[in-house]
Design goal:
Shape: globular
Radius of gyration: 21 Å
Number of strands: 13
Strand content: 15-25%
Helix content: 10-25%
Number of helices: 6
Bound molecules: manganese (II) ion
Order of helices and strands: HEHEHEHEEEEEHEEEHEE
């Protein structure tokens, strides 16, 4: 017996969906759109020839990739936008390349264009997004690449992590949008952020200190992460506070989403820069820059999610209309 497919083409699909539609099943609780923006590494120059054609990164490619992300956030589930109360941007560190290794260049721009260019891209991005969401909430954390190398310890910041080039960018953003009721910039002094989204507590840190997720591009130790979640939440519960339900990190440049035994979600972001000469030198031979976004409502700490593979934007000049490439200008 030949079985005729029910869903055949666009017209038949629409008719089928109409026939089975149950409006009562449509979840109309309010939602937040959340994105982890980490490991962008603005100010780094990836030489395409040195990378065997696998990757290329500069201010133009950065503008296109970041513009693509802004467009994805703008259009994400726009049919449900009446339910979106806000968009939450988790700026989770390594937003600039900094000058921590290969200090003689040319892989890294001087620090002033790094900071100015990144500032410009965030200001443009936030100004773009506020037209499409009722509220834009920005939660900030520095990473290891934003640290300053004049200190005695050249290693990651074990104290005063907020004393970083990235925090100078965060302060500027807070100043620029100080009188804008639609944009809130949150900059904790702690090396981790504690935010509540749709009733769920979310813990965000870069992942190089406080909460260690693994080595960049090497391994993610789920047992160790589980223990760290239990340790972190034990103190919250002991003090009568709600446990964290979502933990967000960057740093390892290896995107992953999984749950630990308690059911808490672990979201590890990928990078926006992709592979560079440093990554290639430690044996990373592929290029897969990705940033992770998801929806949250009161029922689901992590609902629908989307992984934004940003290198698709590299040849699309039109994204420069959203983010104008930085051209080393000082004013
Ligand atoms: Mn890092």
């Amino acid at each position: 017996m030949k079985i005729e497919p029910i869903i055949l083409n666009e017209k038949a699909t629409k008719a089928y969906l109409k026939a089975i539609a149950k409006p009562s099943l449509h979840d109309t609780t309010s939602r937040s759109v959340v994105i982890a923006l980490t490991d962008l590494h603005f100010g780094t120059n990836v030489d395409e020839a040195e990378l065997g054609g696998k990757n290329k990164f500069n201010w133009t490619i950065g503008a296109r990739r970041f513009g693509f992300i802004m467009e994805q956030l703008q259009t994400y589930k726009v049919e449900e936008r009446n339910l979106h109360e806000e968009i939450v941007l988790l700026l989770g560190g390594d937003l600039i390349g900094g000058i921590i290794h290969n200090q003689e260049g040319p892989d890294y721009d001087p620090i002033t264009p790094q900071v100015c260019g990144a500032m410009s891209y965030f200001i443009q991005g936030l100004s773009h997004l506020k037209a499409f969401y009722p509220k834009v909430r920005v939660v900030c954390q520095p990473g290891n690449h934003g640290r300053m190398m004049h200190k005695a310890s050249k290693d990651r910041a074990m104290s005063q992590k907020y004393d970083s080039y990235e925090n100078i960018i965060f302060f500027a953003l807070a100043q620029v949008f100080k009188n804008d009721p639609k944009i809130e910039i949150i900059v904790p002094k702690t090396p981790y952020a504690d935010v509540t989204v749709q009733g769920h507590r979310l813990f965000m840190s870069h992942g190089d200190t406080v909460f260690i997720t693994g080595n960049p591009g090497k391994s993610i130790n789920t047992e160790s992460i589980d223990k760290q979640v239990l340790r972190t939440n034990a103190d919250e519960v002991k003090n009568g506070r709600k446990p964290f339900e979502v933990f967000v990190f960057g740093h390892v440049h290896q995107a992953a989403h999984f749950q630990v035994t308690s059911g808490a979600h672990i979201i590890i972001n990928g990078s926006m820069i992709g592979t560079d000469s440093f990554a290639q030198a430690v044996g990373i031979m592929t290029n897969n820059p990705v940033q992770v976004m998801w929806e949250m409502n009161s029922k689901f700490a992590v609902g629908d999610n989307r992984w934004l593979s940003v290198s698709k934007a590299d040849h699309e000049q039109r994204y420069e209309k959203i983010i104008k490439p930085y051209n080393y200008e000082l004013a």
